[in-house]
């Protein structure tokens, strides 16, 4: 009897371990092919997608539970959007201007209507054509923002346009899902209107709740002394906030990625935003990698090879058609030609949420005829291939935009529908001379070192410290100061360590000191590093790590004691 009672538990445990094995197989294959892609100077995302296609059910079949894995992997997209939101405070988000947001609305509308018209003219029923148009209207938020972030171009003019359009597309997810419901005769117009009203009210409640939580509760927790002493607690809070915001948005019937982005934006005004972004980075990396591998699993390699001509034709139509529509929408919104073209290159693919729309339409296909098996496989295959070529299109974007815009100027006429652009062509990452003096650790030693430098070099001093009180002191001195753990690359990059001419490391821990020296040697190879060694035994370890000058506290204390003794003896002799 006991054995019978324990049987369901044993079966459940077996399923858990089998699921873990599938996740490990996906991550392992993604690691190998991602590494190979990087070695060939290609984007690692290409390797991740291919890994999923090879070991997924459409090829080797080593991993079959793609729906469950895809559900878990969607958290990676939420974490990615949460991290990007942390870089965009509400003010900075408003600074995007009306060009990207208006362009996003026009792009979704034009692509939906135009794509549906073309598919309908090719002979498919109108409901199926509208579903395909809705799928093509969405680009890949995860893929585009990940690549732009890796290339440090998310804050470029065309990067901001792409971000704005992607945000509008995420907002359009709910109406597009309702469109599929209407086409399937699954709901009356009154029900659809009611669902839209509920979605709008839910979004308003979400923003109000997140504003109170992330602007009042979270900063107070992070400023507690106990939380600053224990690094585990802030990391747990960061993950809970990121995933919790995604879950709440999903529970309210909204896009989880959009909910995570809103949470990040509202938290961006906190002085702890950069540290939170660094804390979630490892978890985000794992889940985003799993996401792209899971997307690759949707591909059917055998069917793709048998219908390669059809799929290539669909991909070509998507890239050219959607790229043209995006460029046109951006120009009509007032965007400058070169940035309109560059953003078109960035967004000329079909996004990951299209898989959700396709799955819904396929499920309704037997009764409503929304999506046949051939149409489903063709659009899924074309989506994966469009994602595979996205890294190359984005790498071409700035040069192609400038070149095509220059060619177009010779025969261009003024755009009577364009409004004044809100995106200028100034480089937001203008070069900064290597002249900054970084002080890593602003405790008593860091403050003493800075006091002697402030009078003549105040404008050059930059402080990085994990303690909010120390950062507050630095800011009272009028210094540029950043909160965060300097042993994390994300924090150093945010503080722009590459501009450093001199770095003063005052942290007492020898392990932390050595790690900092290694990181700074990598990110600012020309910087001169001054490090503090609390004990004599650690001096040579810091020198071997790459520090140019090491101040040995025991040596300095010994010299000071000797000088004080000699001074006392001289004073006694004089008496």
From TrEMBL:
Ranges where the RCK N-terminal domain occurs: 437-551
Transmembrane segments: 16-37, 44-63, 69-89, 101-121, 127-149, 161-184, 196-214, 235-252, 258-276, 283-302, 308-329, 341-363, 375-394
Membrane topology: Multi-pass membrane protein
SUPFAM superfamilies from the UniProt entry: NAD(P)-binding Rossmann-fold domains
InterPro entries from the UniProt entry: Cation/H_exchanger_TM, Na+/solute_symporter_sf, NAD(P)-bd_dom_sf, RCK_N
Domain Cation/H+ exchanger transmembrane: 30-393
GO biological process: potassium ion transport; proton transmembrane transport
Keywords: Membrane, Transmembrane, Transmembrane helix, Transport
Superkingdom of the source species: Bacteria
Main location group: membrane
Annotated localization: Membrane
Pfam families: Na_H_Exchanger, TrkA_N
Single GO molecular function: antiporter activity
A GO term from the CC aspect: membrane
Family designation: Belongs to the monovalent cation:proton antiporter 2 (CPA2) transporter (TC 2.A.37) family.
Designated name of the protein: Sodium:proton exchanger
